[in-house]
Amino acid sequence: MSSDDEDYLYDDDSDDSGNESTVNQDEDDDNDDFGMDIGLGEEASGSGGGGGGGLMMMVSGADKKGSDHAHPYEVLSTEQIVEHMVDCIKEVNSVIQIPTTTVRILLNHFKWDKEKLMERYFSDSQEQMFAEAKVVPPYKLGAKAMVAPDLGGRGVSLSAKSTLECEICYLTLPKSLTTALECGHPYCNSCWTEYITSKIMNEGASQSIECPGNCDILVDDVTVMKLVKDSKVKLKYQHLITNSFVDCNRLMRWCPAPDCPNAVKVQFVESRPVKCRCSHLFCFACSENWHDPVRCVLIKRWIKKCDDDSETSNWISANTKECPKCKATIEKDGGCNHMICRNQSCRADFCWVCLGPWEPHGSSWYNCNRYDEDEAKNARDSQEKSRAALQRYLFYCNRYMNHLQSLKFENNLYSMVKDKMDEMQQHNMSWIEVQFLKKAVDILCECRRTLMYTYVFAYYLKRNNQSELFEANQKDLENSTEHLSEYLERDISAENLVDIKQKVQDKFRYCDSRRRVLLDHVHEGYDRDWWVYTSDDITS
Amino acid sequence: MAGLPRRIVKETQRLMQEPVPGISAIPDDSNARYFHVVVAGPEGSPFEGGVFKLELFLPEDYPMSAPKVRFITKIYHPNIDKLGRICLDILKDKWSPALQIRTVLLSIQALLSAPNPDDPLANDVAELWKVNEVEAIRNARDWTRTYAMGN
Ligand SMILES: [Zn+2]
Ligand SMILES: [Zn+2]
Ligand SMILES: [Zn+2]
Ligand SMILES: [Zn+2]
Ligand SMILES: [Zn+2]
Ligand SMILES: [Zn+2]
After folding, report:
1. What confidence score (pLDDT) does residue A453 get?
2. What is the pTM of this model?
3. What is the pLDDT of chain A when averaged over all its residues?
4. A136-219 is classed CATH 3.90.940.10
């Protein structure tokens, strides 16, 4: 059907690399401004030329680090994470002179513990280390490269002809449109691109993409960045490479906001608020939203409880009781008090009124005369207890949810206040003079956030003198926050513009001070061991 | 045959021109990605004398992903299960786009010559193969006679 002369159609499937004369040329020089060269010379020789493009940065004009000097943490963009990673690799590379891709894979293998890597490298088990990390030792790499490459028996020799057949697409192409790693297995650039793309996008591979030829040579970063043109794929590759770096690094954490590519780097690990450039505020230690005054363990427990108990409010209704044997929820579905548990593996018979076993009730199907029997009493007691615990939980949960709900209207409030600010500026107030309104909303939201978490704290708290003081503080903050909220949402429109500033400032300053008092008190309690937690919910 | 990649066209041509000894692979009349494969049981193996039918399908993203291959003829083999699915590394994680239908068929032929009960797919077969190889081989011969001969 086709003959070999048709083979010379190297344009037909190369959509993005077809116009490029050769991958070895540094056509990406314009990207070098943000470019990290992680090909440090020696490994670039076999793969992708001069080492211009390494892990290229996609986003230009990345912020410089340390935007907020008051706090000892940095928000790192993907590029800056790569930069850190490269520094780490370079440091090792200055001691151990092996290809950077190999260093990166080894570091990854040792969870980015440089010392461990060095120790193993200079030990007797060096060869074993390479095997464990599944990399070809660099001295073997050299040897392999010298062995003449097997060109699949098609008889095309690299040196003899200027064209060769790609073993993946079977097109015959000029050598300049093909790429080979150290092992010398050449494939056309568009097949390489398709191959690497499919490895990255479909398999999530990054560290372990092998040459398609029957060999273990790994594709290095320079080659990947040269061959892949699609920025989505490049980003995913960078993300995969940096993922393990960030995950292994105790001082770094990805911003948990959805789709945020940034990470935060701290000086030492502690539970503390960090704010990403995307404005998400979270706890460095546990990645949850910043949850002062509750501690990480309790907030985790609370969130889990909320997830587990999301159904609870449904079965609180008076029409359900729990089976005294298996605790399954039972609904009374008729006039008869003889209940049979719906749980197929339980099928307990009991009395709806006294919760005692049904059997002694005999044939009195419609009324109960055993209400005071011990067995029935115990069953009711335990039911009572679980009800009380549930009521208690719902009490705190409702308050928590209420503030969470209010916070969702944050944006409305900001836009409302913005209108007000515009109006005031039209009445001869300067921009700077009207900023107090935005500040008021900031503080309102902070107070709500704090209040929300105080209910989690309170839920787990055992009563003592200090807990009563805490509750008084909580009540004060609750009241002052509601006043501020009411004022901003309603009363403000009726006020004289001149009076507003004073009133708003008074209110938000008071809120802020109440908030400080509450937080300081809780923190003091942590230092002085005032807080005792309820035992029932706290295991582990 | 519009839309059929050059790779598949050429690979099929070459496969027809220089077939693998003991194996025939013929593309379906209506679907060039579907191959009717027949493998002769290798000499000296318990499958000798048997004729095994397989189906081979080249998925949409072939050669980026591996061909799908399955025995249609029942076979008693530790690396082939009841449904004819084959446990072969190059059909899974060791697949590379530089491999070919030819490589796959050769590997399957090799698997018939040298079953590998340490990497089993059919557990009971592999178990017997390890515990009592004589009986396992006898079973394999019986199955070959029953299912893979005279058809
Ligand atoms: Zn190709
Ligand atoms: Zn290779
Ligand atoms: Zn973020
Ligand atoms: Zn935390
Ligand atoms: Zn029950
Ligand atoms: Zn009763």
Report:
1. 95
2. 0.55
3. 77
4. no
